[in-house]
Amino acid sequence: MNERKEKRLVSESDVTNWHHFRRGALDVFPLCLAVMPWGLLAGSFAIESGLEPLQAQAMSAVVFAGAAQLAATGLMKADASFWVLMLTTLIITSRHLLYSLSMRDRISPLPLRWRLGLGFLLTDELFAVTAHQTPTMFNRWYALGVGLWFYLCWNVASFVGIVAGELIPDLDNIGLEFAIAATFIAIVVPTIKNMPVLMTVLTAMTLSVFFELIHLEGGMMVASLVAMAVGFFCHQVRVK
User: Fold this and answer.
1) Using the 8-state DSSP alphabet, how is residue 171 labeled?
2) How far apart are CA 40 and CA 171, in angstroms?
3) 134: phi then psi, degrees, rounded to nearest 5
4) In whole angstroms, what is the distance from residue 31 CA to residue 47 CA?
């Protein structure tokens, strides 16, 4: 009798976990569609930069960071040094450190295999979908559904881009890079729910465009730092 009851509980648990996993995959699906052109661009640009198809696919599978991949392949194409490539990648992906700090209270209590898995899958999209959840709301299977489904979609898009990059020359010149801006707009806009966040976004947007117009090197980093300072100041004023 107890054995039957235990089997029933295990079965119900599996169904519940699958439900959360599937819901996470469905919730991130719109962002997966938005990032498809970006994945195509990353795959085709890797081929354009001289990587072999297997190397290009491995970059998407292992690095799993669109902006960093595009920057890295561009530097490879320009024959930049190893240290320049590494430093640039570090700067671009440094925002993931902030993501991990923000989600530490939800992920740190999990077993090591979950921390490693969700840590690898922690992207802008996973953060955007789950960051608003409190520790009591957070579900590991839901987060896994979000992260794993996005990972699969990204690698499929990269694979298509790799194949197309070998068959269609200059695929990276047809405007697919707009997908990068579109994806981040889709991520950022739903998070604007208070004045500090709004001021951060407006500051970053205004300064990044201005610095681009005057061709300021490192302008994106300066805009980011100033925007964070403005957001922090607005938050402190709001709290007081």
Assistant:
1) G
2) 9
3) -75, 165
4) 25
Instruction: Kindly write down the DSSP assignment for every residue of 95-116, as one continuous string.
Output: HHHHHHHHTHHHHTTS-HHHHH
Which letter, b or e, does each residue of 139-158 get, where b requires 16 or more Cβ atoms within 10 Å of its Cβ? bbbbbbbbbbbbbebbbebb
How far is 26 from 13, CA to CA, in rounded Å? Answer: 20
| Of 134, 135, 128, residue with least CA distance to 150 | 128
State the Cα–Cα distance between residues 236 and 230, nearest whole angstrom: 10
For 40-62, the DSSP string reads HHHHHHHHHTT--HHHHHHHHHH
Query: pLDDT by residue (tens digit) across 36-95?
Result: 888 888 888 888 888 888 988 999 998 888 788 888 888 888 787 888 788 878 877 877
Q: Which residues have a Cβ under 8 Å from the Cβ of 88 and sit 6 or more positions away?
A: 71, 72, 75, 80
Handedness of CA 71, 75, 78, 84 (dihedral sign): positive
**Helices marked H in the chain:** 2-48, 53-62, 66-77, 82-93, 95-102, 104-107, 112-121, 124-130, 140-167, 178-188, 195-213, 219-239
Angle made by CA atoms 159, 176, 43, in degrees to the nearest 5: 20
Q: How does residue 116 score in pLDDT terms, banded at 50, 70 and 90?
A: very high
Q: How far apart are CA 111 and CA 83, in angstroms?
A: 35
